[in-house]
What we know:
By secondary structure, the chain is of the alpha/beta class. It has a single domain (3-219), classed as Glutaconate Coenzyme A-transferase. Helix content is 19%, strand content 24%. A ten-stranded mixed sheet has the order 4-3-2-1-5-8-10-11-12-13. It has a three-stranded mixed sheet with strand order 7-6-9, with no helix packed on it. A hairpin with a 3-residue loop joins strand 2 and strand 3 (49-52). The longest helix is centred in the first third of the chain and has 10 residues, at 3-12. Belongs to the 3-oxoacid CoA-transferase subunit B family. Pfam families: CoA_trans.
Amino acid sequence: xxxxxxxxxxxxxxxxxxxxxxxxxxxxxxxxxxxxxxxxxxxxxxxxxxxxxxxxxxxxxxxxxxxxxxxxxxxxxxxxxxxxxxxxxxxxxxxxxxxxxxxxxxxxxxxxxxxxxxxxxxxxxxxxxxxxxxxxxxxxxxxxxxxxxxxxxxxxxxxxxxxxxxxxxxxxxxxxxxxxxxxxxxxxxxxxxxxxxxxxxxxxxxxxxxxxxxxxxxxxxxxx
Length: 224
């Protein structure tokens, strides 16, 4: 399993039975393949599908069934189709329980930049702003660092901000952070990852969850 798939699987484990979930472009699209068997969720795509299923098997894609990122999808029994206006009406009306989004950066207040890189052409913001403002819960899935090794969890955003709304959960290949009114809380380390590595690769300030402090102290790394 690839690192990105590991991130998607962890995000899927955060979902609850009955959730209506929007999957953004990138790592979030992989979440559809890791929905726990003991729950039923309803995957939403802003191009007008409620009831998105797992990635189609090789050679079985239907060119007429794609998500908002134009990737082929399957649909579950009972899925519904509608126009973009109705789809965004669902989002803006607060009917999406969870949005899982990819990002360029997250700042230490839990705000994200995920729609524009200065100097590069942009087709448009898509549904990112609407999803951040209209969803009850927002989960970020991202690699911890960019291709050149730069931190993606930063003190201050370098790219245009998408929304002032804080996300609720950040899941990377190294760790999981919760977000509250005071900022980021490191709650989990990925298997084999040490706290020292997370500190070295995270520019933003963060606190440690109490049980993580205890575990790391026992391992001899301390809480500082």
